[in-house]
Amino acid sequence: MTERFGAISFVASETPEAEAALAKLVERYGNADPSEADVIVALGGDGLMLQTLHRFLGTRKPIYGMNRGSVGFLMNEFRERGLRKRLEAAERSVVHPLSMHAVERQGGEVEAKAINEVSLLRRSYQAAKLRISIDGQVRLAELIADGVLLATPAGSTAYNLSANGPILPLDAPLLALTPISAFRPRRWRGALLPDYAKVTIEVLEADKRPVSAVADHTQIDEVASVSIAIDRSVDLVMLHDPGHSLDERILREQFGY
């Protein structure tokens, strides 16, 4: 029987642990060119997993991560032996990234994708002042805060959780809109939005309250406005060992305090 994942390509972070693991796995399984590989195996932590997902965005190549980093929420346990059997048995998680369209204060426009979240963050000692619209309707005329973020279910356990946002099941058709250290309105704790919503965030008083927009690893300084929506044309496929799917990890995270 032909293996689904006969050609494996490895990528690794630059830590000694990841590089040592890479050498052992390449010796055992070979290392296919990424363009010809059936699967990409990422060796590192969640940061490398995000970089790898971005690198192969739009290719539909499945990504299987093994933890050789400090944070491994998205990763499987590292084992040198039995990799092909693990790949054959792995469960698929398909997620769609956020698409961000940012308009800079000077008029330039920037597009970027985010798998975890898009965040707007103050750039000075002054709190940011933001206006939030959903599908063209203003829902919050003025938010004074350190910032605000919009997270996918896959990203809801990252920065969003640190900002006291809700954890979302992976298959929930929702996005989490979460303030970061809100000053006004004090009681606003964010919102759960349908995942088809288009979110527009305008920066008020941008000359004296500059704001950056960050889509995962892409940062745009001094934005005037940002529009964000799910990009359903892009599928990102992650592989996880049975019993350790992303759904299961998100569930466990909610009972692991």
Residue fraction in strands: 35-45%
Q: How many beta-strand segments?
A: 16
Task: Provide a count of the helices.
Answer: 5
Structural class, please? Answer: alpha+beta
Largest sheet: 11 strands, antiparallel
N-to-C CA distance: 45 Å
N-to-C SSE string, H for helix and E for strand: EHEHEHEEEEEEHEEEEEEEH
Mean of residue pLDDT values? 92
**Integer-rounded radius of gyration:** 20 Å
Poorly predicted runs are none
Pfam family, one: NAD_kinase_C
InterPro entries: ATP-NAD_kinase_N, ATP-NAD_kinase_PpnK-typ_C, NAD/diacylglycerol_kinase_sf, NADK
Binding site for NAD(+): 46-47, 116-117, 146, 154, 157-162
Enzyme class: transferase
In short:
The protein is α+β, with helices and mostly antiparallel strands and 257 residues long. It has helices at residues 16-29, 46-55, 83-89, 159-162, 246-253; strands at residues 8-12, 39-44, 63-67, 91-95, 98-104, 109-114, 117-122, 128-134, 137-151, 174-184, 191-194, 199-204, 211-215, 218-220, 223-230, 236-240. The chain is built from five helices and 16 strands.
Structure description:
The protein has 257 residues and is of the alpha+beta class. Helix content is 17%, strand content 40%. The protein has 5 helices and 16 strands. The chain has helices spanning 16-29, 46-55, 83-89, 159-162, 246-253; strands at 8-12, 39-44, 63-67, 91-95, 98-104, 109-114, 117-122, 128-134, 137-151, 174-184, 191-194, 199-204, 211-215, 218-220, 223-230, 236-240. The strands form 2 sheets. Strands 5, 6, 7, 8, 9, 10, 11, 12, 13, 14 and 15 form an 11-stranded antiparallel β-sheet that branches. Strands 1-2-3-16-4 form a 5-stranded mixed β-sheet, with helices on both faces. A hairpin with a 4-residue loop joins strand 5 (98-104) and strand 6. The longest helix has 14 residues, at 16-29. The protein starts with 7 loop residues before the first strand and ends with a helix. The model has no long low-confidence stretch (mean pLDDT 92).
